[in-house]
Amino acid sequence: MRTASLFAAAGVIAPALCNSKRTPIVSSEQLVKLVKLEDLLAGSQKLQDFADAHGGNRAFGGGGHNATVDWLAEELEKTGYYDVVKQPFVELFSAATVDFSAGGADYKVEYMTYGPSSPGTVTAPLIAANNIGCTAADFPAEVTGKLVVIKRGECPFQTKALNAKAAGAAGAIIYNNIAGALSGTLGAVGDYAPTVGTSLEVGETLLAGIASGVEGSLFVETIQENRTNYNVIAETKGGDKNNVLVLGGHSDSVFAGPGINDDGSGSIGVLTVAKALTQFKVKNAVRFAFWGAEEFGKLGSFYYLKSLNGTLGGSAAEVAKIRAYLNFDMIASPNYVLGIYDGDGSAFNFSGPAGSNTIERDFEEFYENRGLPHVPSLFTLRSDYAAFLENGIPSGGLFTGAEELKTAEEAQLFGGEAGVALDANYHQPGDTVENLAHDAYLLNSQSIANSVGKYAVSFEGIPRANATIRKRSAEMSRLLARFDTGHAHSHGAPCGAGSVVM
Ligand SMILES: [Zn+2]
User: Fold this and answer.
1) Is 294 assigned a catalytic role?
2) Cα-to-centroid distance, 81 and ligand 1 (Å)
3) Residue 262 Cα to ligand 1 middle (Å)
4) For residue 26, what are the contacts with CB-CB under 8 A and spacing of at least 6?
5) Which CATH code is given to the segment(s) 12-81+237-483?
6) What tens digit of pLDDT does each residue of 444-488 get?
7) Domain with CATH 3.40.630.10 in the chain
């Protein structure tokens, strides 16, 4: 085996061997310098290519995601600097072909994940649910045998779909309560009517037709089967294994598009920092994670914590070795804000475990040192950090925004367009390599490097997590009930396709 110094003499970048005396201890300043836009964009293009070769997406259960996972593992393996594991887990895959027309016109509808197939094409009169469809009383006897139209809101889609079935509806069409298409998940297999989502505009058109007795035709054909998925976990061979920094993003996309910002940007940002880190020695071990099946409900990250905390293996002591978790899910939104998770709870009165305040403060300093603005981002428990918060691990991370509209105040701070979504392509076919904010992408990836450089040396200011699984606080339970009753993806605001639960 050649040594690092020989590689260096030949002008070739080579990983720092753990015992090499010449290799410097990592510093934030040095690590940040090694994060280059061209490397980020090359990585993004790779993910785009995987999606293009596999039907336009990198969703769990498909070839685009499998190619992503294999490539990430290979890239990390070939550095020689990491112990790389592809951790398998089996989850129920669910997808469908859907079709809907009413009064002779075709309307765009989206499948609600885990919903059942329809018995062929069901043609029946439309009827509106009373109120918002969250109680049995919202479904009068006349619903029986009809296609019931229900407004989104107040309770999970699952509740509406169960209520529709219990009332004997032939199918359920849930329409959005804000602009945009509506798809999502029923959270788990259950006794539902065939259920689809549609836009507010279509919903209102359908409601207007009900008075004149319009009939609808609904077709849903689903595939549901167990499929194996993988987390990719790469840990530095060197460093103190009792004091570990974990950071990650999710490797899968939704079905609707290639997911190059969500979460190709986080994946590639993290990978790029992982490659840069190979030039240094670390004092604390650093574990890079690429979570699978996030868009199906953060399945990979929750599986990982269960495999660690004693539920499926490991012990509470294994969890306590993780000193901090950093999450990067969407860091290059085209109309971005520079969002930092509100670890100290100062903005949203929902803080992370002790030490999350330090993590937030350290991220803030990175931007402030460059004279750049930042805004706090709520821990909605709708990205992979949720599993870490639930296990009491101090957490933080970056988020540049999804479908929520940019405020005038944010436009003042960051530029971009007020009144336009932070990522108009969120969970859409347009989430491509063409639609990344390069400046935010580079800056945030350098910010990842900054924090990695810091915690690879010291966890000062971050107390060790209690070596017991954290009981859900009342506040956490309230948020989980609000945001996370089923399997949910997401971010600082209600999520779009393939992931929302209510
Ligand atoms: Zn995401």
Assistant:
1) yes
2) 27
3) 5
4) 277, 280, 281, 282, 452, 453, 456, 457
5) 3.40.630.10
6) 999 999 999 999 999 999 999 875 555 555 666 655 555 443 333
7) 12-81+237-483
